[in-house]
């Protein structure tokens, strides 16, 4: 199963975030308290994980560091033994040092097991002088109504 490509460059992030937090949508968003079948809940979870990944990618492409960092759970531990505060400082510096960023997610595959999800995809990251393409895995956890990144790895 090949998922459609998600491409983000210079997005209207405020518009996308307002969609995800509008009262009308919140009222219609399925939760664990509804009488949904397991298959319907799974489809809903997949859609919510996909939306979380889109918001993460949009924030990165928009160079909106605060929105980007909000996509990571408080329990996220950076690779390589780096502290969370040092990682955030490094990410902020790297993102803001670029005049333009384009981030794409291709061939997205999502697996959901309860309140945890794994997203495998090909990532294309482009700036003025850099173009990187490679496999990426994000592990996410449901926290309240949000799916947040708890770990990431790139190949």
Short description:
The protein has a five-stranded antiparallel beta sheet with strand order 1-2-3-4-5. The chain has helices at 13-21, 23-28, 38-61, 65-70, 84-96, and strands at 6-9, 101-113, 116-127, 131-143, 146-154.
Number of helices: 5
**Taking Cα atoms only, what radius of gyration do you get, to the nearest Å?**
16 Å
- The number of distinct β-strands equals 5
**Beta-strand content estimate:** 25-35%
Give the spatial strand order of the biggest sheet. 1-2-3-4-5
SSE order, as H and E? EHHHHHEEEE
Sequence-ordered SSE layout with sheet pairings:
Elements: E1 6-9, H1 13-21, H2 23-28, H3 38-61, H4 65-70, H5 84-96, E2 101-113, E3 116-127, E4 131-143, E5 146-154
Antiparallel strand pairs: 1-2, 2-3, 3-4, 4-5
Helix pairs in contact: 1-3
Tell me what the structure shows:
- The protein is α+β, with helices and mostly antiparallel strands.
- It has five helices and five strands; from the N terminus they run βαααααββββ.
- Strands 1-2-3-4-5 form a five-stranded antiparallel beta sheet.
- A hairpin with a 3-residue loop joins strand 3 and strand 4.
- Helix 1 runs antiparallel to helix 3.
- It starts with 5 loop residues before the first strand and ends with a strand.
- The N terminus is likely disordered.
């Amino acid at each position: 199963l090949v998922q459609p490509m998600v491409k983000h460059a210079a997005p209207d992030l405020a518009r996308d975030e307002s969609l995800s937090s509008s009262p009308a949508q919140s009222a219609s968003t399925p939760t664990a308290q509804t009488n949904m079948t397991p298959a319907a809940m799974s489809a809903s979870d997949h859609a919510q994980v996909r939306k979380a990944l889109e918001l993460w990618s949009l924030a990165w492409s928009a160079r909106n560091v605060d929105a980007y960092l909000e996509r990571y759970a408080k329990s996220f531990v950076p690779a390589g033994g780096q502290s969370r505060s040092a990682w955030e400082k490094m990410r902020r510096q790297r993102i803001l040092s670029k005049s333009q960023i384009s981030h794409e997610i291709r061939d997205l595959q999502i697996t959901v097991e309860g309140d945890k999800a794994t997203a495998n995809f090909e990532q294309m990251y482009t700036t003025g002088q850099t173009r990187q393409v490679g496999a990426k895995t994000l592990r996410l956890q449901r926290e309240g109504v949000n799916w947040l990144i708890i770990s990431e790895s790139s190949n």
